[in-house]
Amino acid sequence: MEERPKIKLELTTADKSFEIVGWFLILAVWGLTITNYSNLPETISTHYNGAGQADGFGGKATILTLPLIATILFIGLTVLNKFPHVFNYPTGITQDNAFRQYTNATRLIRYLKLIIVFIFGLIAFKTIQNANGEAEGLGVWFLPLTIGLIFISLIYFVTKSFKTKQ
């Protein structure tokens, strides 16, 4: 394995803003879940099919797994983002392009962190609505929205990586 340059990246204002928004979203998902927990029925939707319809049910405590998983993923990706030299890149990393490639890759991770927390928050919100009889399922738009958010970001940043390979 090639020895890649290890560079300490300074966060820009935009990077810091994304981190702060991400932490606020984590707190919001926890707040939403905890404040609605006592009003939930004993059995709630725990799984949804591709059409957004509930097809799995369990105890109301399972709603706590949504903010928990979102938090674990967010923190894990935050830690990983401190080591961009270990990422996989579609192009070779050199001393000349390392800063641009690392910056691009860490921004991708920041966007994905926000998207992940947003998706888990949306699932928690819709699950609470379903449990209270205010909605039915996630909606047919949920899967295309989720896939779109993830893949648009991936395509944008991978394309940008190829364009900045020099």
Please give a handful of descriptors for the protein shown:
single chain, mainly alpha, 4 helices
Can you put this structure into words, describing what you see?
The protein has one domain. It is mainly α. The protein is elongated, with a radius of gyration of 19 Å. It contains 4 helices and 2 strands. Helix content is 58%, strand content 7%. Helix 2 runs antiparallel to helix 3.
Write a compact overview of the structure shown:
The chain has helices spanning 13-37, 65-80, 98-131, 142-163; strands spanning 43-48, 54-59. It is mainly alpha-helical and 166 residues long.
List the helices and strands and how they pair.
Elements: H1 13-37, E1 43-48, E2 54-59, H2 65-80, H3 98-131, H4 142-163
Antiparallel strand pairs: 1-2
What order do the strands of the largest sheet run in, or round the barrel if closed? 1-2
In total, the number of strands is: 2
User: What is the quaternary state of this protein?
Assistant: single chain
Q: What structural category do the secondary elements indicate?
A: mainly alpha
Q: What percentage of residues falls in helices of 4 or more residues?
A: 55-70%
Total domains, how many? 1
**What's the order of the H and E elements?**
HEEHHH
Unreliable spans: none
Give the overall shape, derived from the CA principal axes: elongated
Beta-strand portion reads 5-15%
How can the largest sheet be summarized?
2 strands, antiparallel
- Return Rg in Å: 19 Å
